[in-house]
Amino acid sequence: MSDVRLTINGREVTAPKGSTVLEAATRAGIFIPTLCHDPELTSFGACRMCVVEIKGMRNLPASCVTEVADGMVVETDSPAVVEARKTILELLLANHPADCLTCGRNGDCRLQDYAYMYGVKSEPFGGEKHNYPVEDDNPFIIRDMNKCILCGKCVRACAEIQGKNIIDFAYRGFDAKVATAMDVPLSDSECVFCGNCVAVCPVGALQEKALRSAARTWEVKKVKTTCPYCGTGCSLELNVKDDRVVGVTSCQGDVNGRALCVKGRFGFGFIHHPDRLQKPLVKKNGTFVEASWEEAINLVAEKLQDIKEHHGSDALAVLSSARCTNEENYLMQKFTRVVLGTNNIDHCARL
Amino acid sequence: MTNSIKEIAGADFILAIGTNTTESHPIIGLQVKKARRNGSTLVVVDPRRTEVAELADLHLQIKSGSDIALLNAMAHVIIEEKLWNKDFVNGRTENFEAFKETVKRYTPEFASEITGVPAETIREVARGYAKANNATILYTMGLTQHICGTHNVFAVANLAMLCGHIGKPNSGVNPLRGQNNVQGACDMGALPAVLTGYQPVTADEVRAKFAKAWQVDELPAKPGLTVGEIMEGAAEGRIKGMYIMGENPVLSDPDADHVIHALSNLDFLVVQDIFLTETAQLADVVLPAASFAEKDGTFTNTERRVQRVRKAINPVGEAKADWEIICAVSSAMGYAMKYASVSNIFDEIASLTPSYAGISYSRLEEGGIQWPCPSAEHTGTPYLHKDKFVRGLGKFNPVEYIPPAEQPDEEYPLVLTTGRRHFHYHTGTMTQRTGALEVYYGTEYLEINPVDASALGIAEDDMVLVKSRRGEVRVKARLTDVVPRGVVFTSFHFPDVAINKLTNAAVDPLAKIPELKVCAVKVEKAS
């Protein structure tokens, strides 16, 4: 595809034909704020945060839905653009709860970022505010439609990533909101709680219930790893605070992009469950008693050795694990073949 | 999988057999949905009307265990109507004549009687599959957990070869594996007959190579026992001691009471796990293992992609990573195993395993790599069998339909089939302890067709007893036409509905996979 030459903020840049001004700017390292745009979703052009000034055009077009053209001259931060963005933010804040102090997305919120960036403090458009009840009747997601800015990313994520179409815009005008069919709670809908809507929400309208009540956004360390459930191999980020996994968020995975399912995103609680085994156990007179590692390992070694000597290697067998790592399975079969001296090793591949 | 997960979205025709994709593999399900949105044809073969079946152009509500009749009949139609790929069959396969001879008698009318699928539908699906530019076959345990599981897979492979729908992007034979590292555990040689990378223990040069690397004189040459045979051996007293790491056969294996009996019969059982599972409770020694969040390593996913697992937190309590525990036991038994880090273990794997030879931790930092990856310069293999099969020519393995080992009869008139639920996983060890999943989906139920339920006087939410020749469980009934008449379904996620007390341990003679998808049961209202 041929390239188009255009000027952005006085710089000559090239961009593939058919790309948007936003894409061209991003490629050139020029930042344009967005709220409703997401590279993985269809372009929506609703929030107007990404407006730019283009020479010869009458209004300020939204850069996310404006195609590049040869010779185009674009300004991304002109006074007119900045004024427009400030007004948009003022309008959004006019009907947004000012509870950043307790909001779980404080520190990871695009509305907050842009209000800070453009110095928008007050609410010149004060007026009626929504007072929707917060939906928290399911164990996965908190839905606070008072904080929703109607960017529609969740609607598109549900339709275009998850393919479920559980939510869409309902009502009109001031009453417009994102709702399930018949505006029932998610728990009464066909929602499968993948949380992919939460992953794309730019504000605090959709939050992971456990994560956002356990840690402030800046307190967590994120560690990219691979999901421990099915064989798909989704990448995810464990959110860690004080040596505890407090939640899971999306990252860009080779297999899954940012999509996760309910188990990958919300099924991490077992890690710190009180039932976790914390010490070796040895059965004495039919009941388990705690033992030191040394005692337990020596007992295992002695018993296995004893059976090997008295009944032969093939009287021993090992079940390795489709849940453990490659390295662990490798060592287990090495141990079985070298130390126990048998090929009696298998795992639950057939189950 | 012969192909990559993302290639599913590029298939023109998807034949999904015995896979409840959107519930059991939700993220792979997204690719199926994407393919549908792109206009591809989806045909789902499943006795249950699952979510993915509802998305399909055609849902073939097949009688449990009759897959071979269907697949052979499709081949019959494709040959009869001359839709097969002559170039591919002539150039890349062998034994076609024998296959042709076998499928001759599988007319769609004959198959229709066995499968319950109308003959004209079989013709339509056969034509669609054969004529597609790219056609992919997805399957999971619904195809394999039968006494003819291996033959079912042969029948699938025969069909793919017949139409040349293999060895190219978006087209292939794609088993979706059910556990995070079941592919890796197989690749690593946690199997009775092969070492890493499927190198057979019976080959002298293979054993010599490993013996040299591991600095021992010799390695056992006789293939070992499979899990079912191990349990049998324990029950009969031939197996005296067992070491179980991260598995819960008491809930996952068929005929649970028999498994409990077998494990109780051992002189010594050591179980290494993160919880005191139903299996660990039978152990003499229980070793506390670290969870995936507490250790470094790699998993290999269903599309053969090796990916990093990274330590996020320290092990809870005194738990240790499984690899550290194995090293400690081995060293205590006189064979010192010492590794400074898991990347050193991986390097040892790569040095002994041709398909992993080019993979290293430093390369994995850049992203996952799909094996075979024979050298450090190789970028990995998105799809297999391009130009040539591993054995050279692809061999048609003609297979005949056989009925399931246990058929419904007067005493046990219903077929029980088992599987997974969206909100839970395997034996529930993890998903019953998340503070979220089990809160939302806390009670298991038995799916039963309203017509069957009404004949038995069973209403929604009634507690029922499900009985087979091997055991019984109590469970709530849910009346739904997701299951056809004559079939009941539940999962094996709930310890209080230990459905594998009922299932049949009859196995496929080749792969030794148990027939978990079909057994005969009766259902009655519990008092």
How would you explain this protein's 3D organization?
- The complex is a heterodimer of chains A (351) and B (527).
- Chain A is built from nine helices and 15 strands.
- With 351 residues, chain A is of the alpha+beta class.
- Chain B has three domains: 5-176, Dimethylsulfoxide Reductase, domain 2; 182-370, 3-Layer(aba) Sandwich (Rossmann fold); 414-525, Barwin-like endoglucanases (Beta Barrel), CATH 2.40.40.
- With 527 residues, chain B is of the alpha/beta class.
- The longest helix of chain B is centred in the first third of the chain and has 14 residues, at 67-80.
- The chains are: A alpha+beta (351), B alpha/beta (527).
- At the A-B interface, strand 9, strand 10, helix 7, strand 12 and helix 8 of A face helix 2, helix 11, helix 13, strand 7 and strand 8 of B.
Radius of gyration of chain B: 24 Å
Oligomer: heterodimer
CATH architecture of the largest domain in chain A: 2-Layer Sandwich
CA-based gyration radius of chain A: 27 Å
Report the β-strand fraction of chain B as a percent range.
15-25%
Task: Give the strand order of the largest sheet of chain A, numbering strands 1, 2, ... along the chain.
Answer: 2-1-4-3
Q: Which pair of chains has the greatest number of interface residues, and how are they split between the two chains? A: A-B, 110 and 145 residues
Structural class of chain A: alpha+beta
Tell me the CATH topology of the largest domain in chain B: Rossmann fold
- What is the level 1 CATH name of the largest domain in chain B? Alpha Beta
Number of strand segments of chain A: 15
